[in-house]
């Protein structure tokens, strides 16, 4: 007896297969809009068909074949009416979609297309989540706290830029890969960091963004297993995600790392992340994501906050600072220095940094001042930190710290 499919089953397949279907059909038709419309049409057909027939054994193949055939029929009808866009898409039509083993390469091409340096960073993030993650325009608008028409316009402009600038649908040549790969990794990590600690709003975490970033990280790791920075980024995200269950208290309050119940950390994610870090170490080609992952691995090794190997963390930050000499890296290093050499030494280093509008600069400075007994200055720093964060959960923690003084 056929197992009927519910709307939830179709939605699950949509999330899992949308990116690969769009990627393949972009190659087939040479047009992102045509590919997206084709996939959406195929999913509409699935919603009508699968409740009676069940989910097919190879849903991605069903969707791609259905989308291709229905779209070619539509384009032929429109081309007969002198629709130049339809004629151009028909002229580009490639042979049959590739076998499953090659679909992964199509998604990699699409990822590099979405993350082309000719596009602004916000457009890269939006396109990546739209075309590879299957997020709707409404979901993207909610995730990045902009009106839906604004997000729709951002996506339309990005697609037009790809078309008008003739941005190629391909993985860069080997000589160009390191430069382009860094941009792709930056987009994926930006998606994760926005999900891990939302820049604005009431929620601290956006689980959907974290999940999508990790999914893209896994995809990259499968497609480029010899790139240590790809493995480093995936390890970094997994280790960060492992602590999510302990980051919020029973009333939704933010719980900092030193105060978290480590028994609630996800040990499976920690084991996977640490295994990736060890693979990176064996490659001996350190990069910023690998070093950040190694720092997180040291934290995850400690059974208690007091048992953390802070000297090892300072050494790793020294290497990271040599590769990425930014004020934010120096600020994070100062946090570790405070545990090794004391808050006075760390405060001297923090006060040399120029991060006047970064809320964590003021929050870290406030904590150091509090530990030194300089309560009035600490209170002023907590106030400034609370002013500069737009996340309500972070602001509530800073207010609690201020009240405790």
UniProtKB/TrEMBL annotation:
Q: Where is the DUF6596 domain?
A: 180-280
Per the record, the GO terms for biological process are: DNA-templated transcription initiation
Q: Is Transcription regulation among the key words of this record?
A: yes
Q: Which InterPro entries match?
A: DUF6596, RNA_pol_sigma-70_dom, RNA_pol_sigma70_r2, RNA_pol_sigma70_r4_t2, RNA_pol_sigma_r2, RNA_pol_sigma_r3/r4-like, WH-like_DNA-bd_sf
Which keywords label this protein?
Sigma factor, Transcription, Transcription regulation
Q: Domain named RNA polymerase sigma-70 region: which ranges?
A: 14-79
Domain RNA polymerase sigma factor 70 region 4 type: from-to ranges: 123-162
- Give the source's domain of life in one word: Bacteria
One example GO MF annotation: DNA binding
Which PANTHER family does this entry report, sorted A to Z? BLL6612 PROTEIN (PTHR47756:SF2), BLL6612 PROTEIN-RELATED (PTHR47756)
The similarity annotation says:
Belongs to the sigma-70 factor family. ECF subfamily.
Q: What is this protein called?
A: Sigma-70 family RNA polymerase sigma factor
Organism (species): Prauserella cavernicola
């Amino acid at each position: 007896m056929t197992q009927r499919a519910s709307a939830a089953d179709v939605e699950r397949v949509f999330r899992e297969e949308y990116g690969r279907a769009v990627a393949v059909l972009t190659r087939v038709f040479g047009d992102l809009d045509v590919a997206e419309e084709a996939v959406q049409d195929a999913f509409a057909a699935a919603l009508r068909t699968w409740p009676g027939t069940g989910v097919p054994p190879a849903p991605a193949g069903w969707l791609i074949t259905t989308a291709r055939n229905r779209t070619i029929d539509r384009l032929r009808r429109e081309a007969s009416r002198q629709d130049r866009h339809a004629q151009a898409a028909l002229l580009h039509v490639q042979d049959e979609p590739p076998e499953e083993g090659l679909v992964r390469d199509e998604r990699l091409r699409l990822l590099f297309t979405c993350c082309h340096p000719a596009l602004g960073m916000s457009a890269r993030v939006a396109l990546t989540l739209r075309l590879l993650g299957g997020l709707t325009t409404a979901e993207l608008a909610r995730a990045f706290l902009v009106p839906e028409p604004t997000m729709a316009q951002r996506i339309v402009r990005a697609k037009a830029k790809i078309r008008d600038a003739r941005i190629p649908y391909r993985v860069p040549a080997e000589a160009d890969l390191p430069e382009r790969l860094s941009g792709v990794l930056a987009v994926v990590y930006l998606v994760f960091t926005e999900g891990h600690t939302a820049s604005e709003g009431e929620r601290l975490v956006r689980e959907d963004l974290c999940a999508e970033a990790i999914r893209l990280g896994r995809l990259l790791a499968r497609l480029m297993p010899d790139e240590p920075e790809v493995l480093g980024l995936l390890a970094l995200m997994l280790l960060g995600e492992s602590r999510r269950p302990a980051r919020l208290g029973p009333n939704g309050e933010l719980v900092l790392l030193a105060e978290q119940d480590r028994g609630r950390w996800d040990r499976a994610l920690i084991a996977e992340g640490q295994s990736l870090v060890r693979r990176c170490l064996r490659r001996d080609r350190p990069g910023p994501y690998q070093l950040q992952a190694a720092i997180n691995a040291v934290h995850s090794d400690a059974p208690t906050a007091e048992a953390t190997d802070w000297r090892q963390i300072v050494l790793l930050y020294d290497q990271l600072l040599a590769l990425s000499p930014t004020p934010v890296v120096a600020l994070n290093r100062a946090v570790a220095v405070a545990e090794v050499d004391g808050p006075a030494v760390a405060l001297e280093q923090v006060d040399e940094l120029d991060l006047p509008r970064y809320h964590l600069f003021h929050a870290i400075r406030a904590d150091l001042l509090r530990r030194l007994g300089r309560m009035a200055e600490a209170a002023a720093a907590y106030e400034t930190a609370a002013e500069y964060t737009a996340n309500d959960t972070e602001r509530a923690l800073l207010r609690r710290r201020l009240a405790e003084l």
